[in-house]
Each structure stands twice: as C-alpha cells, then as structure tokens.
Amino acid sequence: MNCEQEIQKLEKANRILQKKLERAAIDRIQLEETNKKKESLLKKVINELQESQTQLKQRTLELEQTLINLQTMQDKMSVLGGLVADVAHEINNPVGFIMGNITPAIEYIHDLLYLIKLYQQYYPEPTKEIKKTN
Length: 134
Hints:
Layout: H1 2-122, H2 128-133
C-alpha cells in the first residue's frame, strides 16, 4: 500500500501540476495578447509622435519664415519712417521760412502801397516811361 499511496500522491501532484500548467498556459496566452495590444498601442503612439514632430518641424519653418518677413518689414518700416521724417523736415523748413517772413512781408507791402499812394498824391502825372509799363 505504501506504493499505492505514493502513486496516488504522485497522481494528485501530477493533476495539480497539470492544472497549474494549464493556468500558466492561459496566463501566458493572456500576457501575449496583452503584450500585442500594448505593442500595437505603443506603435500607434510612436506614429502619432512622429506625425506631431513632423508637424512641429513644419510649423517651426513657417514661424521662422514669418519672423524673417517681420524683420524685413520692420527694416522697411524703419527706412520709411526715416524717409517720412526727412520729407516732413523738408516741408517744415520752407513753411517755417514763409511763416517767419509773412509779417515783415506784409509790412513791406503796406510800406510800398503807402509809397505808391504818396507818389500818386505828389506826382499825379506819371512820366512817359511809367505810362509805357501800363
């Protein structure tokens, strides 16, 4: 009996090991499926990251081009501002000259008109030369 008991123990141990082996096989299959899902998800994430990186590079190039355009425009605006300032200066100089001399010019014209009036009063008959200019 000792042998039969030993065989029964071994058979029982064998059944237990068989069940553990079956569970291990099921667990292995589940792990493989989980790994496949995770691998697929990881590939998807990697592809999305690569697409994002490509888009980011494209956006960076666009922004760099925009920056270059803005710098060029800023330079043009600076030159234009200088040009406008120069034009304003060139306009202000003659206008300032005219404004500064209007009052004396009016006084001179009044003086000339007064002199003409005096000449007409004291010399009512103009000379032949003056008559020619009429």
